Amino acid sequence: MIRINNRDELEWEEGMTVSSLLERLKYTFAHIIVRVNGEIVPPEKYATYLIPDGAQVLVIHLIAGG
Q1: In the predicted model, is pLDDT for residue 12 greater than 80?
Q2: Which of 19, 35, 37, 58 could form a disulfide with 46 if both were Cys (CB 3.0 to 4.6 A apart)?
Q3: What's domain 2-61's architecture?
């Protein structure tokens, strides 16, 4: 089980990457910051960064306003 944004829980799957998690959650925002267990994951590593079972994941989408 992994915890998303300190509120939602999601069943962990072996081989789960940041990319597969974002796809599963249907997050399509242009600018997203992902932190796994306190470590910021660079976007170029989303496809290969494995999320461990029991992870705390924070997903923040950035929006500009004015």
Answers
A1: yes
A2: 19
A3: Roll (3.10)
